[in-house]
Amino acid sequence: MFETVIGLEVHCQLNTKTKIFCSCSTSFGDKANTHVCPVCLALPGALPVLNKAAVLKAISFGTAVNATINQNSVFDRKNYFYPDLPKAYQISQFTIPIVEHGELFINVNGVEKRIGITRAHLEEDAGKNNHEDSRSLVDLNRAGTPLLEIVSEPDMRSSDEAVAYLKKLHSILRFLNISDANMQEGSFRCDVNVSIRPKGDEKLYTRVEVKNINSFKFIQKAIEYEVERQVSAWEDGKYDKEVFQETRLFDASNGTTRSMRGKEDSAEYRYFPDPDLLPVFITDEMMKDATQIPELPDQKRARYISELGIKENDADVLISTYESAKYFEDLINDNHEPKLCVTWLNVELLARLKNGATIETSPVDSSKMNQLLTRIEDKTISQKAAKDVLDYLMERDDSVDSVIEKLGLKQISDDGSILAVIDDVLNKNPDKVAEYKSGKDKLFGFFVGQVMKEGKGAFNPAKVNELLKKKI
Ligand code: ADP
Ligand code: MG
Ligand code: ZN
């Protein structure tokens, strides 16, 4: 019997406006080489200056994961050559990272587990090589973008735990608003380290690193494939030959991993402190500011349950993304009843999001939903009619009130029109009225039904009940 051991390295792009050592913009998707300057082009003599915003964001992260924040840390040069790295070294942190000894908690199948975070350090991103048919083009817009590299302890024992860790990490970054953590755009990139060992064995066996996998699903697949490969090598007596420290690539087209290169040792990078940068010193003042962090998903979940009376499952859905928690709180801040908000967000809106639409891209944003809930609560429309309004708004841009008008959904609450119908219904059914009066209470429902039917669903049911009771 074998046990899987997984440790994860995540490179997360911090969402600062400018790069980490120069004032070029970090904006994504622009024309190649338009956000460059002597520093990020590595022109001789240009000197880096540290972006304070990147440091503050790293401190917030450290705070969120209960880590030690090293108020003194150092930038080192990691030397290697690659066309997207014009300096031939990356500025990173090696000996003293800004953040160390953190933790986060995951929950898989109802079991809570602590995952250690070894360290998180600041570094600069490289540029990008774009390969065309017969040539490769280098785009340095990304060179110098601030990254926080977050390294976990080898604490995960299954692909489910690895994915739970990544999702938790992802949501912490989003709730802290320190990264877009957009996997498609590469602002949340993950390297997976996988090894196996006989169950009960405490020692760590050879790890294989699978690089840059850009979706949770692929990460799961890459781990599962890698475990299978290592286990069969062991069982076939070929473990020593086939499993060695190396970097592998995940091939999404067939769900396998293949060898990319032998794993380099840190000694090969010839790390040394960057003489162009002073050691980083974080003042107590900066610590005070940056350790004030927004409410995190776990805290929100607890508060929704205890203060707002939300069910656990519903709370889980609400905090599953930053956007849905934000949407929900927009509704709560507009003073709508919490349970009504949950129904209209978790049930009605989510069911209507189709074709990859998310809460973020939903045609009905929280301010429109606010209008809709207001009209339900002030009884202008019934909940049933509100569903028609929502259907309409998912397809066309319009205001809630104008849709209510267009679809003729306004509930009628004025006594006069309802009373007229009540009289009519009672006159048409003299025998039923007599039966009711002689004690057949159940007939009340029949009268309500008739009146509502005549009102074509536009009558406010509470009002109908009230008036009918008086009248009969
Ligand atoms: P490198 O940059 O050389 O990959 P790091 O220290 O940055 O080294 O990352 C090492 C990662 O590998 C960590 O996440 C660690 O938990 C994980 N790891 C170390 N040993 C093992 C192992 N035997 N099996 C699985 N993961 C491991
Ligand atoms: Mg690594
Ligand atoms: Zn620059």
TrEMBL record:
<dbReference type="GO" id="GO:0070681">
    <property type="term" value="P:glutaminyl-tRNAGln biosynthesis via transamidation"/>
</dbReference>
<dbReference type="GO" id="GO:0050567">
    <property type="term" value="F:glutaminyl-tRNA synthase (glutamine-hydrolyzing) activity"/>
</dbReference>
<dbReference type="Pfam" id="PF02637">
    <property type="entry name" value="GatB_Yqey"/>
</dbReference>
<dbReference type="InterPro" id="IPR014746">
    <property type="entry name" value="Gln_synth/guanido_kin_cat_dom"/>
</dbReference>
<feature type="domain" description="Asn/Gln amidotransferase">
    <location>
        <begin position="326"/>
        <end position="472"/>
    </location>
</feature>
<dbReference type="Pfam" id="PF02934">
    <property type="entry name" value="GatB_N"/>
</dbReference>
<comment type="similarity">
    <text>Belongs to the GatB/GatE family. GatB subfamily.</text>
</comment>
<dbReference type="InterPro" id="IPR018027">
    <property type="entry name" value="Asn/Gln_amidotransferase"/>
</dbReference>
<dbReference type="InterPro" id="IPR003789">
    <property type="entry name" value="Asn/Gln_tRNA_amidoTrase-B-like"/>
</dbReference>
<protein>
    <recommendedName>
        <fullName>Aspartyl/glutamyl-tRNA(Asn/Gln) amidotransferase subunit B</fullName>
        <ecNumber>6.3.5.-</ecNumber>
    </recommendedName>
</protein>
<dbReference type="InterPro" id="IPR023168">
    <property type="entry name" value="GatB_Yqey_C_2"/>
</dbReference>
<dbReference type="InterPro" id="IPR006075">
    <property type="entry name" value="Asn/Gln-tRNA_Trfase_suB/E_cat"/>
</dbReference>
<dbReference type="InterPro" id="IPR017958">
    <property type="entry name" value="Gln-tRNA_amidoTrfase_suB_CS"/>
</dbReference>
<comment type="subunit">
    <text>Heterotrimer of A, B and C subunits.</text>
</comment>
<dbReference type="GO" id="GO:0006412">
    <property type="term" value="P:translation"/>
</dbReference>
<dbReference type="GO" id="GO:0005524">
    <property type="term" value="F:ATP binding"/>
</dbReference>
<keyword id="KW-0808">Transferase</keyword>
<dbReference type="InterPro" id="IPR042114">
    <property type="entry name" value="GatB_C_1"/>
</dbReference>
<keyword id="KW-0648">Protein biosynthesis</keyword>
<comment type="function">
    <text>Allows the formation of correctly charged Asn-tRNA(Asn) or Gln-tRNA(Gln) through the transamidation of misacylated Asp-tRNA(Asn) or Glu-tRNA(Gln) in organisms which lack either or both of asparaginyl-tRNA or glutaminyl-tRNA synthetases. The reaction takes place in the presence of glutamine and ATP through an activated phospho-Asp-tRNA(Asn) or phospho-Glu-tRNA(Gln).</text>
</comment>
<dbReference type="InterPro" id="IPR004413">
    <property type="entry name" value="GatB"/>
</dbReference>
<keyword id="KW-0067">ATP-binding</keyword>
<keyword id="KW-0436">Ligase</keyword>
<keyword id="KW-0547">Nucleotide-binding</keyword>
<dbReference type="GO" id="GO:0016740">
    <property type="term" value="F:transferase activity"/>
</dbReference>
<dbReference type="InterPro" id="IPR017959">
    <property type="entry name" value="Asn/Gln-tRNA_amidoTrfase_suB/E"/>
</dbReference>
<dbReference type="GO" id="GO:0050566">
    <property type="term" value="F:asparaginyl-tRNA synthase (glutamine-hydrolyzing) activity"/>
</dbReference>
